[in-house]
Amino acid sequence: MVVGIAARSQQPMLPSGGCNSEPMAELAVVIPTYNERENVEHVLASLRAALSGIEWRVIFVDDNSPDGTADVLHRLAKENPRICVRERPVRLGLSSACIDGMMTASSPYIAVMDADLQHDERILSEMLSRLKGEDVDVVVASRTIPGGSMGDLPLARVWLSNVGKMLGRLVCRCDISDAMSGFFVIRREFFQRVVNRLTGKGFKLLVDLLASSVVPVRILEVPYRFRGRQRGTSKLSTGVELQFLYLVAAKAIRKSISTLFMLFE
User: Fold this and answer.
1) Residue 142 belongs to a domain with what CATH number?
2) Phi, psi of 16 (to 5 degrees)
3) pTM of the model
4) Which residues contact 29 (CB under 8 A, 6 or more apart)?
5) SS3 per-residue string spanning the chain
6) Residue 260 binned pLDDT confidence (cut-offs 50, 70, 90)
7) Total of domains in the chain
8) For residue 182, how many C-alpha atoms fall within 13 Å in the half-sphere facing its CB?
9) Are 18 and 85 in contact (CB under 8 A)?
10) What is the pLDDT of residues 123-180, one digit of tens each?
11) Which structural domain range is residue 201 located in?
12) pLDDT digits (tens, 9 = 90+) for 58-100
């Protein structure tokens, strides 16, 4: 099932804050949230320090967090015109939240990162600079190239990430060391080329984006050290892991069918 612009637009969005008032920014940072009330003010302060000298805005997409995350975000948006808040009335998943946020963005460059401060926002300016200065579509923050680190992740999470990287590379048509990274900066024009082929399933949007391109994606990776979560709880579950396997299987089957059609053309 392909979830394109028309399909997602049928999902109602609740009133948003700051989404139409901020002038054009160079970089839009999309952050999905679910029960991240304790983290959102900290991540905003971190972004402010990391992106000094860059015209940026941040788009939070909240999936009806029962802890009141959206209330905190709306309060912050009243004080800061850089903040856009998108609310969804039901929890539809991390990847689809990121896609909705990216569709809201009008900036030429779009970053995706988590709200839990495990992604090192200090390398965002370098990632943006590399994307602007080099002939690539996506700059990925990688934990597995020299200089990067998985941090203190439990062995089970490391194993899952390694399996995911191997499976992801099978369908991505590109050479990437950390296909499971959820931290990247992308050209908006590239996102627009692939958005109607995205499944929107699971929690690893990067694999979906790369596997949805009809041509090999130009990728550059920069190292970063994955940090431990200080507040809140992880959203990773068995169901989320199964969604990722569904995504990989769906993309692999689609590519196999496309190859068969090409053989008979």
Assistant:
1) 3.90.550.10
2) -115, 160
3) 0.80
4) 47, 51, 56, 57, 58, 59, 110, 111, 112, 113, 124
5) CCCCHHHHHCCCCEEEECCCCCCCCCEEEEEEECCCCCCHHHHHHHHHHHCCCCCEEEEEEECCCCCCHHHHHHHHHHHCCCEEEEECCCCCCHHHHHHHHHHHCCCCEEEECCCCCCCCHHHHHHHHHHHHHCCCCEEEEECCCCCCECCCCCHHHHHHHHHHHHHHHHHHCCCCCCCCCCCEEEEHHHHHHHHHHCCCCCCCHHHHHHHCCCCCCCEEEEECECCCCCCCCCCCCHHHHHHHHHHHHHHHHHHHHHHHHHHHC
6) very low
7) 1
8) 24
9) yes
10) 999 999 999 999 999 999 998 889 988 766 556 555 555 665 665 566 676 778 888 8
11) 5-264
12) 999 999 999 999 999 999 999 999 999 999 998 888 899 999 9
User: Residue 128 CA to chain centroid, in angstroms?
Assistant: 15
Q: Using an 8 Å Cβ cutoff, are 62 and 70 in contact? A: yes
